[in-house]
Amino acid sequence: MMFGLCRQCKNEIEPSRLNERVVVCNHCGYSKPNNSIMRLIQKIHLRNSLILTALLIAFLFQVRQWDGHYLSVIPLQIKEVIGSLSPADSQKFIDICKERQNYQCIIDISKNWLKYEPLNTRVVAQLAEAYKLNNNPKQSLIEYKNFISLGGNDYKVAYEFAKLLEKQGYLTEALQYYEYVLASQPNVLQVTVLQNYVDLLINTQQFQKARTVILQNRRRGENAKYILEEQLQQVKGKKKS
Fold first, then answer.
1. Are 241 and 206 a contacting pair, CB within 8 Å?
2. Domains of the chain
3. How many beta carbons lie within 10 A of that of residue 195, not counting itself?
4. How far apart are CA 54 and CA 224, in angstroms?
5. Which among 160, 113, 114 has a CA at the least distance from the CA of 141?
6. CB contact at 8 A, 62 and 43
């Protein structure tokens, strides 16, 4: 059946019949499969199969990456792509990322959030922590400093800043922030913070100051009488300050 003519009777076939899978002559009834239509149908089936396979792979990747959170994450990812993540959405996304220990995700969401709320110290603190946990201490220090410069006054954040400063070798600054954390809660005996502070005083050979700090804090109550005994023994008889 070429150019709409029936091979058998040579008459012109009704045009509407030429688009069917099997072309049947409306004059003599001769029929033949429509190869062009069949090829088109095969292409459509192949394309749909590839799309479904890609969607299945993407779905399985989401399930593997996000575990039980994938149903919550997918709409958040869509909002992120179209730029409609609200602060509540962003925090929800960050909380999920924290649970999955996906620190790069926290960094990406926090940086995007700060484009719209650059003075949000809570987000800056989250970003600083994420950089630290993602093994990027240099950038973490930058964000902690940004937190302080913006007026952030959370003593827990300052404590993490102090520990990171010490770890990176900025000992003088670390001492200052340990002192800030201790002063932020004068009526609370922060034994862990105090121990880190005294240990750093000893490491920087400020023995007299370390001894003074220990003895002052031991006078704060019955439960403080014997704190930091190991550190006190270390500084006994040492004069350098």
1. yes
2. 67-152 (1.25.40), 155-241 (1.25.40.10)
3. 15
4. 63
5. 160
6. no
Q: What three-state secondary structure class fits 32? A: strand
As given in the structure block, the two tokens for residue 206 are: 């400020």
Cα(120)–Cα(98) distance, integer angstroms: 19
Burial environment of residue 154 by CB neighbours within 10 A (0 to 12, 13 to 18, 19 or more): middle
Q: Could you read off the pLDDT of 9-57 as tens digits, one per residue?
A: 878 878 878 777 788 888 887 777 877 776 777 787 778 766 665 555 5
How far, in Å, CA of 87 to CA of 113, rounded?
7
pLDDT digits (tens, 9 = 90+) for 66-120: 665 655 777 777 787 788 889 999 999 999 999 989 999 999 999 999 999 999 9
- Sign of the Cα pseudo-torsion (54, 60, 65, 92, in order): positive
**Separation of alpha carbons 105 and 113, rounded Å:** 12
Q: How is residue 205 written in tokens?
A: 């050979």
Q: What is the pTM of this model?
A: 0.72
**Region of residue 29 (left: phi > 0; alpha: psi -120 to 50; beta: else):** left
Q: What is the residue type of 153?
A: N
Structural tokens at position 51: 């799309």
- Judge contact between 63 and 55, C-beta under 8 A: no
Q: Write out the two tokens for 145.
A: 């400093």
